From TrEMBL:
The chain crosses the membrane at residues 20-43. GO terms for biological process: protein processing. Residues 91-270 form the Peptidase M13 N-terminal domain. Keywords: Membrane, Transmembrane, Transmembrane helix. Coiled coil: none annotated. This is Peptidase M13 N-terminal domain-containing protein. It comes from Dreissena polymorpha. GO terms for molecular function: metalloendopeptidase activity.
Length: 271
């Protein structure tokens, strides 16, 4: 009986020893791991403290300038845009005057125009260029359309021929349009109400003279699809510079002068 008790005690003691050894080893490994983590953390903090800030180098001048258009056209366009701006205005408060304020201050609407803008100014500049093209002598390699335009332009300055022709050309043209009622039976007149066709008259007037008496009709590129062309209908060009003239008193000086001119033309055609 004593032998059995001693054996059981020995086995129990051996099991406890193994558990104790395992716990000691586990504690030691945990301690080592903690020590390593703490050491690495301390080293990392020291590295951060010793880190010297380094500024990023700005892009080279060559790289910056390569992205800027410095051609003559770009420089001129930039100058025009800058010259139109009013930088004293806050764009967040009034962007229109910020972008166009100086241009508006430097330009006024001419007396012969109802409006004026950059496109109007551009059109005037183009007219000056075209005038220069029309006034030079023909060259052998000039397109036919250019030589014809020069002949037409120069014909307007041939006053002797204009005087020699007198009213014959305009009278024949009025007859082709159906006649001018004011002239009655005289050359250029002979208008017949029964055969009058307004649509036909407008078409012939548009094709022959580009005069737009009632409506302005033409063909333009579609804003929504530039690859297509569409028909547009607009108000016509007025005989006087703008509608404001027609809203004045009936006996206004400029209105009476316009009426007198029309009367004198009619009288001259009827002589």
């Amino acid at each position: 009986m004593n032998g059995t008790s001693t054996e059981s005690f020995t086995k129990s003691r051996s099991g406890s020893s193994r558990v104790l050894v395992f716990l000691v080893v586990l504690f030691a490994l945990t301690t080592v791991a903690l020590a390593v983590v703490v050491a690495l953390t301390v080293l990392k903090v020291k590295d951060i403290e010793n880190l010297v800030p380094v500024a990023t180098e700005p892009p080279s001048t060559a790289e910056t300038e390569s992205d800027i258009c410095l051609t003559e056209g770009c420089v001129m366009a930039a100058a025009r845009l800058r010259g139109a701006m009013d930088t004293k205005v806050n764009p967040c408060d009034d962007f229109f005057n910020f972008a166009c304020g100086t241009w508006i201050q430097k330009h006024v609407i001419p007396e012969d125009k109802s409006s004026f803008g950059t496109f109007t100014q551009l059109g005037d500049d183009v007219n000056v260029i075209v005038k220069g093209v029309l006034e030079v002598a023909d060259k052998h390699d000039d397109p036919e359309v250019v030589t014809k335009a020069r002949k037409y332009y120069k014909a307007c300055f041939d006053e002797k021929k204009i005087e020699d022709l007198g009213l014959t050309y305009i009278q024949s043209y009025l007859t082709a349009l159906g006649g001018f009622p004011v002239l009655a039976s005289k050359p250029g007149g002979n208008w017949v109400a029964a055969g009058f066709d307004l649509v036909n008259l407008l078409v012939r007037t548009r094709n022959g003279t580009n005069i737009l008496p009632l409506i302005d009709v033409g063909v333009v590129q579609d804003d929504k699809n530039p690859s297509k062309y569409i028909l547009y209908v607009d108000q016509p060009n007025l005989g006087m510079p703008s509608r404001d003239y027609y809203l004045k008193e009936r006996n206004a000086t400029d209105l009476m002068a316009y009426q007198t001119m029309l009367e004198e033309i009619a009288v001259a055609l009827g002589r």
